[in-house]
Amino acid sequence: MDRQDPLAPFQDRFVPIKDPNVVAYLDGNSLGRPLHRTLEVVQELVTSQWSSRMIRGWQEGWLHLPERIGDLLGGAALGAEPGQVILADSTSVCLYKALHAALSLRPGRCEIVTDTDNFPTDRYIVESIARDKGLMVRWIESDPAAGVTAQQVIDALSDRTAVVTLSHVAYRSAYIADMRAINEAVHAAGAMVVWDLCHTVGSVPVHLDATDSDFAVGCTYKFLNAGPGAPAFIYVRSEHQPTLAQPIPGWMSAADLYAMAPEYRAAPGIRAMLSGTPAITGLAGVMAGVELLSEAGIEQVRAKSTDLTRLAIALSDAWLTPLGFTLASPRDDALRGGHVTVSHPRAEELARILIDSGVIIDFRAPDGIRIGLSPLSTSFTGLWTALDRTRILASEALA
Predict the structure, then answer these.
(1) Which element (helix H / strand E) includes 382?
(2) Staple partner for 164: which of 88, 113, 252, 287, CB 3.0–4.6 Å?
(3) Per its UniProt record, what SUPFAM superfamilies does this chain match (predicted)?
(4) CATH number at residue 302
């Protein structure tokens, strides 16, 4: 499979793992590995731009990096035409702003819909906004081993619904929600949708424009390999931009940046979603990651991701099921994102053993071990070796 893999040469674009004890890195769905190109871009920024041009760098390109990289990302991975994606803050702050902006477009409605197994940050922010604005949260009871279906969303909708916010790829199971069907249902009810694409972007193609999505947010440090804490992104459909209001206005989103006006007036378009000064060093890593993805092609990345996860399931069935593991991700390729989760009553203990022995996975309470498969940096042989080691270590621990 490695010999036939058209993306295999991209593994050389990554900085080699320095820890000799690591057997395989299967946690790229939490933090991607660093790129050689990232080192070059950051070095060029520091030694050529920052040290040479200094403050002049803002006028010579830095100010517009959030939009420029946003357009590249929109085209490479999100199915978004230019002018609708911008790099901004952390995912949490981007989600906070997107939810507020969506709510501002649906005044008089009093409910936010989300699911009980959405990522914790998403649930916490929804509850906080609902409390502050006097709204109600309508909870969809989601299955941690599956995800939210369109029918569940339909059942939760009413004329009180203002916004529905869901993860496109579930962080536990990797279940892929039906974006088009959910968007259609929500819009038929007169509400808005805010998508979390953290486990989607760079792994699963999405078509935000074609599916009539309203808002989306996501991080860049997973499958885009932009580095820990790299800036997140916000997508706002162009038709919503003229009338939206976001809750954290700042001078970077002002219509006239240097007017220092006594009253705030938002910049036109997607730039209105900015707040403070862009993190230029962080954006350098995003640029490197987006360029790599654009070169590889999101459809080829998705094809390899599907093959990797399919192999992980086959090996799990053969080697781990006899040890008491159960699959907690969809078997259907079309419903499964870029990671595979297996469950075991002693998963937390086994995860520590695996990590200490060089198989870098992650644990998700209460009983899940996630096998993250970043297609541009992961080989089929590496996956096979890691699961073979998992089989041996788990057999010893459970004996």
Answers:
(1) helix 380-398
(2) 113
(3) PLP-dependent transferases
(4) 3.90.1150.10
